[in-house]
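Lecture 7 notes: from sequence to structure.

We start with a single chain of 117 residues. Read the sequence below before looking at the structure.
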Amino acid sequence: MSGAIRSIITNSSAMVAVSSLDLINTQLSTASSVASFLTATETFTAQVGNVGAAMNPCGAVTNEVNSEITFDQNKISLLNSGLGALVDADMAYEPARLRWLRIQQQLGPSALSIADQ
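Now the structure, written as tokens:
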């Protein structure tokens, strides 16, 4: 067994089971050695199931965090596009305002001459 698997399992009975699961050098010549090997295998399998059950909440939290990240990224994207639209509208407003002021300046003398008559 690798050190990573041994470090995941912290239950002492599981450590005995992991330590006794030597698949290469196991001598299954007697009934007691077969029974011992099967018991160790069952204990190890149960502990692997416990590790999987303990990891399920972590997976659920990870999915929730990923959903929040996606939501926030979409929100930021929408805010950026909204800001761009506001800047574009402001840029369109200024030339229109300048045209209005220029027309007002051009019509000023005409209005005065009409008023003088």
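Confidence is low (pLDDT under 50) at residues 1-17. Keep this in mind for problem set 3.
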